Amino acid sequence: MTPSDKIQKPQSICMNAIVCAIRDTATHLRRISVKHELLKEIGPIAPGTHFKVFIPLNKNSRAVLPDVSSGRAIWADEEDKPYIRTYTVRNIDRVNGILDVEFVLHGDTGPASAWAGNASVGDYLGIGLKKSGKTQEKSDCYLFAGDETAIPAISAMLEVLPAETIGFAFLEVETEADKFHIRTDSAIEIRWLIRNGIPPEQSQLILNAVKKIVLPNPMLRSRYIWIAGEDQMVKVMRRYAAEELELNREELHATVYWKAGLSEDNYSKIRLAQ
């Protein structure tokens, strides 16, 4: 294998971006825009692409950033390591170097929510993301499903789909007040599912809603199902999609964003130990 034949991993970049705008897009959803010159170097990426945020340990300070030259994040001193959380790209303006990220606000119970709830224009947020990534092939029919943590990614995908696209988006939230308008040119039907006090990990709302719809014949229309959110819901939906809907791997994306009762750090440790 010659050097030109080697598979090159997308280069990662890290920066302390500065908060340039803050807007509440729903009752418990805050969109924070951050700006940095390095964001102008990002290539085309799919809406909802994952990236890392490095949350400063103290307000008005910058996050200590890792060395990513080896392809892995390495800190010179583990004691300086900031809080690290995974988010999705809500929007990126590569011309002006501005990245939008939406945070679910649930008080100060987690470092990301606490930071977002108290953020001000001029604050710093550490960002780590790849310079390029996969762009999703368009399908004829989509099924999106997720809770509050997945709604920013789903919204970003809905906003870029063409008018001829059909399907459903099942968005699960705590109360009616958490609903908001999502702009899309597509013919996808958006349905809000309200838990009304049911713990997310016990909710069957998404599963029950999906059971009531009929997906098109794959011989006639291409299909793509995108599911993300709490661990238990995603596992149930992944099993149902594979066994009952008979979807193949190319048609199904199912990602756990969080697990009830665990921080992202502790959940990651459990997954690595398995």
Question: How would the blueprint of this fold be written?
Answer:
Blueprint: E1 12-26, E2 29-35, E3 50-55, E4 83-88, E5 91-93, E6 98-104, H1 111-118, E7 124-130, E8 141-146, H2 151-158, E9 166-173, E10 187-194, H3 205-211, E11 223-230, H4 231-243, E12 252-258, H5 264-273
Parallel strand pairs: 8-9, 8-11, 9-10, 11-12
Antiparallel strand pairs: 1-2, 1-7, 2-6, 3-4, 3-7, 5-6
Read across the widest sheet, the strand sequence of neighbours is 4-3-7-1-2-6-5
Helix content: 10-25%
Give the overall form.
Answer: globular
**How much strand content do the residues show?**
25-35%
Distance between the termini: 34 Å
- In CATH's first tier, which class of the largest domain applies? Mainly Beta
Give unreliable regions as ranges: 1-8
Please give a structural write-up.
There is one protein chain. With 274 residues, the protein is of the alpha/beta class. The chain has 2 domains: 11-130, Elongation Factor Tu (Ef-tu), domain 3 (Beta Barrel); 141-258, Rossmann fold (3-Layer(aba) Sandwich), CATH 3.40.50. The chain has 5 helices and 12 strands. It has helices spanning 111-118, 151-158, 205-211, 231-243, 264-273; strands spanning 12-26, 29-35, 50-55, 83-88, 91-93, 98-104, 124-130, 141-146, 166-173, 187-194, 223-230, 252-258. The protein has a 7-stranded antiparallel β-sheet. It has a 5-stranded parallel β-sheet with strand order 10-9-8-11-12, with helices on both faces. Strand 1 (12-26) and strand 2 form a beta hairpin.
